[in-house]
Amino acid sequence: MMNQTIRRVLKFSVGCVFPAILLLVFVLLAIFFAILYALPQYADKNMVPSLSYLVYVFTSIISYGPYATIPLIISLVTGVAVFFSVTANFMADIIGFSLLDIPKRVFADNKNTDRIKSTYFPFEVITEPADVLPKLMPGPGLIPDYRLPYHRRREGVNTTEEIRTLLLQNRKILVSGIAGIGKTREVGKLLSNLIDEGFTLLYTLPKARFDAEITIPDHLKTRLVFLFDDIHLRCVDPATFDDQPDTTYDFLKSIEAFIVKLTKKYSDPEIFVIFISRIDIQSWGHILYPSHPLWREVICYELPLPDIGSQTGFIMSVSQQLDINITDHEANSLAQANDGTFRNLAQNLFRAKSNGTPLDITSFMPKQGMTWASSLSERRTVSAILG
Description:
CATH class of the largest domain: Alpha Beta
CATH topology of the largest domain: Rossmann fold
Distance between the termini: 118 Å
Order of helices and strands: HHHHHEHHEHEEHHEHEHHHH
Radius of gyration: 34 Å
Oligomer: single chain
Number of domains: 3
Largest sheet: 6 strands, mixed
Structural class: alpha/beta
Number of helices: 15
């Protein structure tokens, strides 16, 4: 009795439920594609024979019920494939890409990932103190940036040691400051000292990506310093993402994940990370500081402006390199008129040397990027103040 009941249930399910489900699926598909077909942008006449073929196959299967033959089922699969291939153009509009592109994308992503995993190491290894500044500061000018003299910013204050102390305490630091203040130079001096003590600098290459598996060579497992210079530029330069669909948030998130993995894997207290960025509101907006999770465990050190004595000493040193005659009093006047950056002082000295003209308070441009016309009134004001 029980067996007969089970057979009746199975017969009913196969004979009625199965065709009913197929019919429901067909009706939903028919309604969906009928609506699309009614839209002008999807009025593709090639849909007509394809849709008619599906109607025939579905009707045949419903009619045959459980006695549907294997060839008929194969015809159904073929019909669905033909239908989707014919209508691939508006399917791409709906979901953003054609269903036929899925295998291609998966294969391409896997191939790219395998390639990156096997060879990817986005750093330049620097092990000699003398190589640090030429790499970080090649810069244009009559004198390369790395050959410009270093001067302490404040009398009796060792800025390099202050950064070093914070780095040793926190292991991750963001050195910030206005453009031209000497951020890279200050960090470069610290890095040269650390390499002298046995550390290895891993300088991040342009277009470096951190969403792939990065393998650190076996001989680089301890006493490492990772440098991310001008991180604010990396976050706005389209070349950073190398035509990949990343966002700034995801880019910073991938760096955070890399640092976390690095810390957990090697658990070395002498693995440090240094970021360098401008301090202005626009640049901090580019790096999403301080809201992004990356910065939660990164201590920020704001580089102070050099005092008048430091700027005066810089002017005297560079003028001697360029063979420009400037007195101490003139250098002090220029320092007081300056915007506080070493870069502007260097640009004024380079300009005077190139033009063969003396550099004094009347010809000095107080701010970076100013033209003679835009700085004329300001230079007059400064001259009046300084006498």
